[in-house]
Amino acid sequence: MSAPDPVELLLQTARDDASPEEFRVTGVMMQYYVVCKRELWFHSRHVEIDRGNAAVVRGTNVDETAYADKRKHVSIDGTIAIDVLDDGRVMEVKPSSALVEPAKLQLLYYLWYLKHVVGVEKSGVLAHPTERKREDVELGEEESERVENAIRGVYDVVTSDSPPSATEKPVCDSCAYHDFCWSC
Amino acid sequence: MDRNYHIFSDGCLERHNDTVRLVTLDGEKKYLPIEKAEAVYLHGQIDYNTRLVSFLNKHGVALHIFGWNDYYAGSVMPKRGQTSGRTLVEQVRAYDDPGHRVDLARKFVAGSIHNMRSNVSYYNRRGHDFDSILTTLADTRDRLAETTDVAETMGVEATARRAYYSTFDAILPDGFVFDGRRYNPPDNETNSLISFANSLVYANVVSAIRATALDPAVSYLHEPGERRYSLALDIADLFKPLLADRVIFRLLNRNQLTTDDFETDLNSCLLTESGRQTFSKAFEESLEETVEHPRLDRNVSYQYLLRIEAYKLKKHLLTGEAYISFKRWW
Ligand code: SF4
Is B29 helix (H, G, I), strand (E, B) or coil? Predict the structure, then answer.
């Protein structure tokens, strides 16, 4: 028997169909997939580390307050939580341009999920309130493929017995697992 | 860093609005800055109630209770913020696998021997002749690799510790004899001090373990016990030379503690209240000392080293990455 395709598993789980195994991917898992696969593995295993460090709450403040009046929070299946603007576009807010790539993949994943699970096609907008910039994001052929490859990638990470080894990168400094990874 | 608060007077510890208040027997009131507290150590006769316990629990603060004769009496631990079934499963798995268990036991002992050796060589450079002890310690460390079970590993540990303790009589100032380790009750000043110091190290490790999802009762070198958090014993051994013994030597050699700080009973010798106070203060200061951590690339306190040790073990258990026990590097 060949291994099931993670994309199929995810869709079956989301549609509540009989599925050989449950497989869910949240938006934050998509972000971790881009930022650090080791962090994704820790997150998936509920390895929680309280570093008692302010840096750990990265990004959440901007997210909470920006555009609060112009958007609706919508939660789907308890797996993804999206913000919908008045004009129907899905918005993702990111605090800094350093985190654009992960935010973009997360947004694309939401669009993909809406299309394949909920059955609605939406456009997205990526907003950077601190930089007063917005970027339109559409789910095309190429983007869909990117999302599906990421889903397979996430699956590989979260189902492996051990995490990818630590590699030092700039985000490590503000990562909740910093001392966990580097105290050796 | 979160602080420890030691209470030596007798009285009552209570929740008062959103603070913790100590009311001593003579009616004096003191307030504890609970937001900054890691743990509260009770050394005197203190009454407290469930309201206080829930309040401390809410703030994640532990209560460590020290009795009179058998210094460490127990802890009231806050509900663990971190629980992880997987961590516990991996912890037990490693315990259950004889090869894995002895490997971890050896690592704890290797670290302990290294840290004992570090103290001995410090005094060796300061006018003592401990060359043969240093050799013995190096030999025991080498013998570790050949141990095949935990009992044997424990035996090597005991040999090393005996050699290590044999230096104490030379290091200690006149008026203090050691003459080997004795417990329950300690029969001389030095033993009494070691008991007290070790139990402070132990209680701090209990707090450090609580910050991870490790179960303090599942251990490797020591047999998991019912009465004590045996994992805290495993980890505390690594740190006793640094956190307990060095403070003891310093205080005694500088005359900050003298034989007047002890009370001798029929067959026991215990620190007086003021002696405990002096020691705890020096101990807390030493917890706050910092050292440059080569991998974290910043200064960390000795107290944080305890936390790091718990992280390292947890990481090993969850990821399979090697556990390297604490060895003093400076
Ligand atoms: S500290 Fe660095 S390597 Fe470790 S999980 Fe965080 S980002 Fe990844």
Answer: strand
